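Tutorial, part two.
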Amino acid sequence: MDAAFDRLGDTPGSSGEPDWCYWIDEAATHAYAGACYLRLEDWGRARQHLRATLRLQDSSYARDGARRHIDLATTYLRQDQPEVDHAVSLASRAVETLTGEVDSARCVGHLARLVGDFAPYRRRPAVRQVTEQAAGLLTSH
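Running the prediction step on this input gives:
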């Protein structure tokens, strides 16, 4: 990952990379790093990269944005001291995107896992609201 970040300033093809790698920009590199740290359950590092991705990513990438919001919500919910309200806020943004702008079975699958992670907090009104909003998406896919 460090090598990928070091190479971001290089122009495509200048050192032998194929021209198709033009799309691997700083936002994409942070997204990959965030996903890796998420799988390693290093919530803090995952969160750092996922936030950077959302800050750098063009807003036209709505599906990717929804996925990053789901992943970021996961980091807040699964950490030792869960920040449930923050996770709910991020999940709500993802649900809104998946309801209005994007149809992605893959994102909905990630959302289903996040909804499962909310189960211990289901008595909270905000959790209940976001899981009810997500229910329509989960049953339609």
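The chain has a mean pLDDT of 88. In part three we will examine how such features are distributed along the chain.
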